[in-house]
Design brief:
- α2 packs antiparallel against α3, α3 packs antiparallel against α4 and α9 crosses α10.
- Helices cover 86% and strands 0% of the residues.
- The protein has a domain of 185 residues: ABC transporter involved in vitamin B12 uptake, BtuC, CATH 1.10.3470.
- The termini are far apart.
- The relative contact order is 0.17.
- By secondary structure, it is an all-alpha fold.
- It contains ten helices and no strands.
């Protein structure tokens, strides 16, 4: 389980889980679940276009996820954010379908882009994944205080000179970078599950931002590690376990909240 190609799967899964836990914490805190769903689909179209042109898939992922982030951030400021995000999602899906229709590897390409190939990650692919992942974490650490302030109390942030729109744009580009390095590993659909389930569960257990961030990373790691081990033991798709364990982690968090509420009512 820990040798050969599986070693690359464990390493790539660990990197993806850490980035998803860190970035996903702010996705949940900012209520940005819809953009977190739309941007990976933009990356899906970019990877399909890169495959059609015969260039590195990470280039297409980066370009299209960046364009999706730019469009959502810029146009969302002047009109309804959800409408712009929905239109960006539809446009990217349409482009992805058009690119894939001209590809000679239609079915395997769709499966790989949507659900990832964590068990097929090579040693050469680990380097760019790790580099982009470190860049994402470094960006979140650099933006942590103003990003947290603009998320929790935007009016206070504005009064202190923090431009909320700039923070929104910066965060969307971090999300785009995280998408670029995670889609090849867990896919456009499953990274959404990994960025939402564990971070949302972490928020159920504590209101302290740093503790919740640490719990978010921990829950994402457990989700990915348990998914890889379960897939290896059962020969079922890794994606099934990522989605299932991510949802279960949130269910566990909600159960804890309900238990805490009943306990406080009983005590009073």
């Amino acid at each position: 389980m820990f040798s050969g190609f599986m070693a690359n799967a464990w390493a790539a899964g660990t990197i993806v889980a850490v980035v998803a836990g860190v970035v996903g914490f702010f996705v949940v805190l900012r209520g940005s679940a819809f953009p977190a769903h739309a941007i990976p689909n933009g990356a899906f179209a970019g990877a399909a276009g890169a495959s059609l042109l015969g260039i590195n898939g990470l280039v297409g992922l980066g370009v299209f996820s960046g364009l999706a982030a730019l469009g959502i951030g810029s146009l969302g400021r002047r009109s309804r954010h959800d409408v712009v995000t929905a239109l960006a999602l539809v446009m990217m899906l349409a482009l992805g379908a058009a690119f894939l229709s001209h590809s000679t590897e239609y079915e395997p390409q769709v499966y790989s882009l949507l659900f990832g190939e964590i068990l097929g990650v090579s040693s050469t692919e680990l380097v760019p994944v790790a580099a982009i992942g470190l860049g994402c974490i470094a960006a979140v650490l650099a933006l942590y205080r103003p990003l947290l302030l603009s998320t929790v109390v935007p009016e206070v942030a504005e009064a202190r000179g923090v431009r909320n729109h700039r923070m929104e744009m910066a965060f969307l580009f971090v999300l785009a970078a995280a998408t670029t390095m995670t889609v090849p590993v867990v896919g456009a659909l499953l990274i959404f599950s990994l960025m939402i389930g564990p971070p949302a569960a972490a928020r159920c257990f504590t209101d302290r931002p740093t503790v919740a961030l640490a719990l978010s990373v921990g829950a994402a790691l457990v989700t990915v590690w348990a998914s890889i081990a379960s897939a290896y033991a059962s020969n079922w798709p890794v994606g099934f376990f990522v989605g299932t364990f991510g949802a279960l982690s949130y269910a566990l968090g909600r159960a804890f909240v309900a238990w805490e509420r009943r306990r406080s009512v009983t005590a009073s």
